Each structure stands twice: as structure tokens, then as C-alpha cells.
Amino acid sequence: MSRYKKQQNPYYQGDLIFIFGVFLIISIAAIYAAGQFGQYGSNAWMKQIVFYVIGAGVIGLLLYFDLEQLEKLSLYVLIAGVLSLLLLRVAPESIAPIKNGAKSWFQIGSFTLQPSEFTKIGIMMMVASIISKAGPKDQRSLREDINLLLKIAAWTVIPIGLIVLQDAGTGAICLFIVMVMVFMSGVNWKLITLIGGSAALVVALFLVLVIEFPHVANAIGIQNYQIDRVTSWMSDSNTSTQADSDKSWQVDQAVMAIGSGGITGNGVHNLKVYVPEGQTDFIFAILGESFGFLGCAIVVVMFFFLIYRLVVLIDRLHAFNRFGAFFCVGFTALIVIHTFQNIGMNIGIMPVTGIPLLFVSYGGSSVLSTLISFGIVYNASVQLTKYKSYLFNS
């Protein structure tokens, strides 16, 4: 009997702990390898450990809340995110420096904070709360679905708009997350078609605006470096100019690095290809050169394992707590889009957008926001285990 109870300890979610540990090891190894280029200092890997330790502490604190309490905090988390984004826009350059034409960070000495990373958590929590209160899809009318969409739009248009003004890539990811959550909520297919068609039209108009009318794009706040990334990605290799070739240099270096790693890699002390932003945006290229195809395959498998675990959790949570289920939907969408985009730009099939590889890339704000979201998922899994144990014992 004692052995059975030990195995049923709800706070021990073995597969999630395994995922956490493996990603920590992968991240430290990759950042340590990239450290030889001196882009973020040779001790960046030690700072990453600190970020993970802080994240683990936050996960522990989150376990003191149940899902109902977390849902009640959704509004406050989102409002805090919006206020931080507004503060960033009016903050002086001494604490909010302009980089690449945009103010995206608070920086006080060596301490940096990117508000958009934490605002994503508030968006996912708030949308999950709105959907959970709307009731099951088979009990909603078309009018109720329209009201649901209007509520979601009312609470997300301002934070996503503020994020887009700072970083179009992060804003697009937030929009993708919301769309996935709306789709999974079971909204009427006619509305889904309308939303999907509208989104496709907006993307098409954006590309036309950026490529054909760059001056107009500048006028509405799109920066030259963002235009360069899109035009570089869209350019055909046979017709690209020298300027386009220069813009694609980062991707060329990343592809060369991955190719030079072969099957088993060159090791963490013997990197031969210089990769810019190797500890952040192009860390997958560092993994490819250091550990080869096998190392990259392990990373991809780990992300598939995480996504599979999330999908299973969503299915089991839905009948127990809809807020928890839909937050997991949002987190799954976040993992999918970040992984696809980051690995895609490392191998040259996606534009360079500065999107990190979650759990792996170096960065305090990105790591902490990811682990906070992971902590809510972990909490949901714990609560579900407790619920199942209660049903079994009763």
C-alpha cells in the first residue's frame, strides 16, 4: 500500500521533470559551446543555470495555488503586462535603450527585462479564462460565439498591438496563439473561416506593403531591419542582389555550421564556423555543429515528446478544468510556433525574426516566462492527479 501511495504522489510528475532536466542540460551544453565566440561572455551558461534555478523556484511557488485561484489572477497578470508595455514606451532611453529601432527592453545596469515575454502569459491566461466561462461548444449559439470572439478581441487587441509596436515577430506569435485557442474552443466553423480568411488577407497585405511600399511601412512603425528580414527571405537565389546576400549571411553561417557537424558533431570545444547570435537566435546551429545530426535529432524528439505530453494533458484536463486545458492549448501553440520558426530560420526555410528556441536559447526574460508557463502546466497536471486520486479513493 505504501508503495502505491508513493507512486501516486501528485507533486511528482516524472515525465515533466524529465523534460525540464533534459532541456536544462541541452541548454547549458549549447550555450557553453557558443561561449567560445564571446558574444555574451564565456560565463553565459552559468547565468542560464541561475535563470533555470529561479524558474524552478517559481514553479514551486505556483504549486501553492490551485487552478481556480490562477484563473482569478488572469486579469491582474494581463493588466500588469499592459502597464509594463506602456511604461516601456514612455521610459527614457537611459533605462529603455533603443535597439534596432525599437524599445523592447528595460535595462538597469546588467539587469534586463523584456515585458512582452511576460505579457504573453497574461494573454494566454485571460483568453483561457474567457473561453472556460463561455461553456462547451455544443451548448453555445452563433450569437454566443460572436460574443466570445468580441470578448477575446477586446482583451487582446491592446496588448498584442503594443507588442507589435516593439517586436512584430513576438506580436505575430501572440496572435497565432490566440487564433489556435479560439479554434480549439469550438467556435462555429463559419466564424473560423471568416477569421482565417481575414488573417490570410492581413498577412498578404503586410507582405505587399513591406516589399512594394517600404516607405509606407516605415510610416506605420515597421522598422527597416524588419523589412530587410522579409525581403531577404522572399528573394530568389538567382535574382537576389548583393544587399540581399549580405542580409542572408546569418542564415548562410547557420546552415554551414549545421552541415559541418556531420552525424556526431565536432564537440563543444572545436566549433569551426562563426555563428552570430549563437547563444540565442541561432543556438540550433550551435547544437548542430557541436553534436551533429544526432544531437539535433534528440532536441527535436524532446520537443515532440513535450508536445505529445501537452496534448494528452489537454485531453484529460478538459472535463476537469477548462481553464487549465485551454491554457495548455495556448502553451502548446507557443512551443510549436517557436520551435518551427527558430529551427526553420536556422536551416534557411523561414525568415530571421529573432525568435528564440524555448527552453534552450540564452536569455533571462525568455527562460523565466517559459518556465512560469511551464509551471502553470505542471500545476495543472498535479491538480489533475489529485482529482483522479480523490475519485479513486472515494
Automatic annotation (TrEMBL):
PROSITE patterns according to UniProt? FTSW_RODA_SPOVE
Record's subcellular location:
Membrane
> Gene Ontology cellular component?
cell division site; plasma membrane
Q: Which Pfam families match?
A: FTSW_RODA_SPOVE
Q: Give the record's keywords alphabetically.
A: Cell shape, Membrane, Transmembrane, Transmembrane helix
Q: DNA damage: present as a keyword of the record?
A: no
Q: Name one GO biological process term.
A: regulation of cell shape
Where is it mainly found?
membrane
Gene Ontology MF: a single term: lipid-linked peptidoglycan transporter activity
Q: How would you describe this protein's topology in the membrane? A: Multi-pass membrane protein
Q: What are the TM regions of this chain, as residue ranges?
A: 16-37, 49-67, 73-91, 152-184, 191-211, 282-311, 323-343, 355-378
Q: Which PANTHER family match?
A: CELL CYCLE PROTEIN, PEPTIDOGLYCAN GLYCOSYLTRANSFERASE MRDB
Query: What is the protein's given name?
Result: Rod shape-determining protein RodA
Q: Which organism is it from?
A: Bacillus nakamurai
